[in-house]
Write a structure and sequence with these properties.
Blueprint: H1 7-15, E1 23-29, E2 37-39, H2 52-63, E3 70-75, E4 83-84, E5 88-91, H3 100-112, E6 117-118, E7 122-125, E8 161-168, E9 173-179, E10 190-194, H4 201-205, E11 207-208, E12 216-217, E13 221-222, E14 228-232, H5 237-251, E15 255-256, E16 260-262, E17 270-276, H6 280-290, H7 293-307, H8 341-354, H9 378-389, H10 394-400, E18 420-427, E19 430-438, E20 444-452, H11 460-473
Helix pairs in contact: 1-11, 2-6, 2-7, 3-5, 6-10, 7-8
Length: 474
């Protein structure tokens, strides 16, 4: 198989000063097309977010596209006269998509039962996960960035506060809109405007988050910026759960007398209301289209939790979502063994072995690619994509990938516009892409391209040239 790169791709890599040994490329025809290319294909490399392809595809195959997570509100005794005489327990199952709207709806359903007063605490049951890594350094040292939020069996709204800055020329200020409202957290209602250029607008605001419950801005917001949004993660998981609960519960007319603490729902706990996530097929689209690291890590841990005690469905069960290489499974429940990264890695390796997909170089840490340890070769990613092309999960998998020039992380990439379904990956010193190109000739190709080099950031043009070459010449 040829190892010589197209001239335009080779020139772009040389211009970016990427060493030949630091770049891997695989192009595989899926239907007899004329192009085929391999270079450094078996070298283990950091794939950045293209590792999400492995996690999401294995999840579709083993859990089924209709798999859903459940978040429950429970109490030790039934409510009486609108009051819970005890604690309200929130039991999570690792739902990656428990956004603030669904959290609000869950509490509204509790309120609709007539509950208005909770005498005890808000008890958070995270037993679906073996452990919650709350401490330790993040990959880039920026603990405020939402993509660094740690996995949590009870992850609410990605533990994120969104600050919208809306300039008001007439008033000479920018309104600051905080979403969601966090009980006990103060955010300035506005900041002064400036007439300067919109350069590093976050730096110009001179934000002070050192006291998370009293956010301050010492600078100004440039009128030229137009509306902007800044997403930050300020509170611990327990603090965030309590702050959002108190705010929403108060707004609905409810009262919570206690505080917040970790705990377990006892065997006699009574389920009051439940929130069910969107199906896995939708969650996978959110993960891959937007390269959501937090959701990918939640899904990765779910694979380990579900492996402990899957319940096979009868062939005529209405929930049957049979998948290649595995029987259908029911959604997780609290009786399963808690999730852990090591078990999830074993589940993925086991499924790969069952399918004959040998990846001896594979190193898994969290399944999202937000890692300095994870490794896979371009050849292994390519064989995964070839396998997916022929599977009954192909429609769901393909629909989850960003379409070049149209949406997701490929929206602003014009290469092979409208004809390439591509997952991208970015870390400092890493650039990656993997997916499918529908060539102008009508042929279809798998493409994987990985760069691990100090100059990787300058090499995106080489990957764009590769996509255009496949579309044009394939």
């Amino acid at each position: 198989m040829p190892a010589e790169l197209p001239a335009t791709v080779a020139e772009a890599l040389e211009h970016a000063q990427v060493a030949p040994a630091d770049s891997a490329v695989v192009v595989v025809p899926l239907d007899g097309g004329p192009l085929q290319l391999t270079r450094n294909a078996d070298v283990p490399m950091n794939p950045a977010s293209t590792m999400k392809l492995l996690t999401t595809y294995v999840a579709l195959q083993t859990l089924g596209p209709n798999y859903r997570w459940h978040t429950q509100l429970l109490a030790s005794r039934p409510p009486a006269a609108g009051r819970i005489d005890g604690d309200l327990i929130v039991r999570g199952s690792g739902d990656p998509s428990l956004v603030i709207e669904r959290w609000w709806l869950l509490l509204e359903r509790l309120r609709a039962l007539g509950v208005r007063e909770i005498q005890g605490d808000l008890v958070l049951d995270r037993s679906a996960y073996a452990e919650v890594p709350l401490a330790g350094p993040t990959i880039d040292g920026n603990d405020l960035r939402p993509y660094n939020v740690a996995p949590d069996a009870l992850l609410i709204n990605f533990k994120t506060l969104s600050l919208d800055f809306v300039p008001d020329r007439a008033a000479g200020l920018a309104h600051v809109i905080a979403t969601p409202q966090l009980d006990g957290v103060r955010v300035p209602a506005h900041v002064p405007l400036s007439n300067g250029p919109c350069a590093d607008w976050k730096e110009q605001l001179q934000a002070d988050f050192s006291h998370p419950r009293a956010v301050r801005f010492g600078g100004r917001f440039a009128l030229a910026c137009g509306p902007k949004t800044w997403h930050v993660s300020l509170l611990s998981p327990d603090e965030y759960a309590l702050a959002t609960f108190r705010s929403l519960w108060k707004a609905s007319g409810g009262t919570l007398h206690g505080g917040v603490r970790a705990g377990l729902a006892g065997p006699d706990a009574i389920e009051l209301v439940e929130s069910t996530s969107p199906p896995l097929s939708e969650v996978v689209r959110d993960i891959n289209k937007n390269s959501n690291n937090v959701m990918a890590r939640q899904l990765f841990l779910t694979l380990g939790a579900q492996s402990a005690a899957p319940t096979a469905l009868a062939p005529d069960d209405p929930l049957d979502d049979s998948v290649d290489g595995a029987g259908p499974m029911r959604a997780a429940d609290s009786s399963l063994e808690p999730a852990g990264a090591a078990r999830s890695a074993r589940v993925i390796r086991g499924w790969l072995d069952q399918q004959g997909l040998r990846m001896p170089e594979l190193v898994l840490q969290n399944g999202s690619g937000l890692s300095r340890q994870e490794r896979i070769s371009a050849a292994s990613l390519a064989q995964l994509l070839v396998h997916a092309w022929s599977s009954n999960q192909m429609p769901n998998f393909l629909a989850s990938l960003p379409l070049a020039g149209v949406d997701g992380t490929m929206k602003k990439r014009p290469a092979a516009s409208g004809a390439a379904y591509i997952k991208t990956g970015y870390l400092s010193d890493v650039r990656a892409l993997a997916g499918y190109v529908f060539a102008a000739s009508g042929h279809h190709y798998v493409v994987v391209a990985l760069i691990n080099d100090a100059h990787a950031q300058a090499a995106q043009a080489a990957h764009d040239e590769l996509l255009d070459w496949i579309w044009r010449e394939g």
